[in-house]
Design brief:
single chain; 428 residues; alpha/beta; Aspartate Aminotransferase, domain 1; Aspartate Aminotransferase, domain 2; 7-stranded mixed beta sheet; 3-stranded antiparallel beta sheet; 14 helices; globular; binds 4'-deoxy-4'-aminopyridoxal-5'-phosphate; binds glutamic acid
Length: 428
């Protein structure tokens, strides 16, 4: 293997960069920034496929379906109508009204169009929320329930906050308890972020469990709640989705993040939104101010697609949801039959986060020692042609895990799991 072997590069990319010789003086902020591990795995798979290598990709954090035709057509029509100019920063009133209607009718959130800002994806929405809630150089803490999506930590740290990880137990389907939350809140806690259904865990909090967390938060009105509901539509375990912003006791402190990427197979469109009712000056107005100095509005002809998706997208979402439900059963059945693997049953999103740590300390047929999630994922990709995301970047407690996405065909799931099973059995 050469020093510039693509998978090695992919995993090296995840390490913090030491400043080297450079022509331009880069900020400490970006020098210390870790690249996204999930995007690094996607990039490595793309490169390996381009080289003709046979890789089964379980790294993808996006639906493998095409955007429904009626949604595409709405954008094409808007483009043909000449909707090609700057728009109001938070989006035109009709699109924000469609989002507010959805949040009121489906999620029970009391909000109106002025509480909504349409953003370049949920990622951008979250980035701006942290920028608006946290001060650089302050000592504010954000509680992150781990394992948690790889981008929360960098976004919080870039905004000047520090992350307090509250680890969830695998035995409790990766959910923290109300007592754990209560124990983590301090005078410095600025916010807590909840992501149900969860990336990377694929599990969900029940409505009662969320009510218990809200009960703890009720007594701490200096703490904002950020609810990332991007996987809200992809649920299949019999657990209902509950939006914390629908709970009166904390509603005015809850920021809801959502978008079209996952539900409508629109990851490349970059459409997200934030709903932040209440407050004076309101968080929504602050986000508009920030976005106005940053990206202005999202691509103008995409707003028509937002309205079409939210008003006529239900059947397509249901078809995709049903497919993910069936794949979740297949993926979970194959995984838990493998040696040394434990994994809660997925109930939402399109991920599983199995514990693989029982294999640490073993050696692969090619002589590699497996001692953490990065060495596990690197060797698996190199030796068996299966791409997974190492668990370490999802929080400290993730290092004994890897993330697999089942946003791929049954044939891919079967073949990838056959390779993974064979490779695990070859470890000694
Ligand atoms: N939150 C979570 C938990 C995610 O997994 C993602 C996926 N990238 C996002 C937010 C943001 O998605 P997007 O920017 O595509 O809307
Ligand atoms: N959220 C997806 C993932 O976790 C997409 C990639 C990203 O933005 O992190 O894989």
């Amino acid at each position: 293997m050469s020093a510039i072997d693509p998978p090695a590069i992919c995993f090296q990319l995840m390490q913090t960069h030491e400043p080297g010789v450079q022509f331009m003086q880069l900020s400490r902020r970006v020098r210390n920034l870790k690249p996204s591990a999930t995007l690094a795995v996607n990039a490595a798979v793309r490169r390996l496929h381009a080289e003709g290598r046979d890789v089964i990709a379980f790294g993808a954090g996006e639906p493998d379906f095409d955007t429904p035709q009626n949604i595409k057509q709405a954008a094409i029509d808007a483009l043909s109508r000449g909707e090609t100019h700057y728009t109001p920063v938070p989006g035109p009133p009709e699109a924000r009204q469609a989002i507010a209607d959805k949040l009121r009718d489906e999620n029970g959130i009391a909000c109106g169009p002025d509480d909504i800002v349409i953003t370049a994806g949920g990622k951008h929405a979250l980035f701006m929320v942290f920028q608006c809630l946290l001060d650089a150089g302050g000592d504010q803490e954000v509680i992150v329930l781990t394992p948690a999506w790889v981008s929360y930590r960098p976004m919080i740290e870039l905004a000047g906050g520090s992350v307090v990880e509250v680890p969830a137990a695998i035995d409790n389907d990766f959910k923290i308890t109300a007592a754990q939350l209560a124990g983590a809140i301090t005078d410095r806690t600025a916010a807590v972020i909840i992501n149900s259904p969860s990336n990377p865990c694929g599990t969900m909090y029940t409505p009662d469990e969320l009510r218990e967390l809200a009960e703890v938060l009720r007594g701490h009105d200096h703490v904002s709640v950020i609810s990332d509901e991007i996987y809200e539509k992809l649920i299949y375990g019999g657990i209902d989705h509950l939006s914390p912003a629908s709970l009166d006791s904390i509603a005015e402190r809850v920021v809801t993040i959502n978008g079209l990427s996952k539900a409508y197979a629109m990851t490349g469109w970059r459409i997200g939104y934030v709903c932040a009712p209440g407050g004076d000056p309101s968080l929504a107005k602050s986000i508009v101010k920030l976005q106005g100095q940053m990206t202005s509005n999202i691509t103008s002809f995409c707003y028509a697609a937002v309205v079409e998706a939210l008003t006529n997208g239900g059947a397509a979402v249901e078809a995709m949801r049903a497919t993910f439900a069936q794949r979740s059963v297949l993926m979970h059945r194959l995984l838990v039959a493998m040696p040394g693997i434990s994994c809660p049953r997925p109930t939402g999103a399109f991920y599983v986060f199995p514990e693989v740590g029982a294999h640490y300390g073993k050696r692969t047929p090619a002589g590699r020692v497996i001692d953490d999630s990065v060495s596990f994922a690197t060797a698996l990709l190199e030796e068996a042609g299966v791409a997974v995301v190492p668990g370490a970047d999802f929080g400290e407690c993730g290092n004994r895990h890897v993330r697999l996405s089942f946003a791929c065909s049954n044939e891919h799931i079967e073949e990838g799991c056959r390779r993974l099973d064979g490779w695990l059995r070859s470890l000694a």
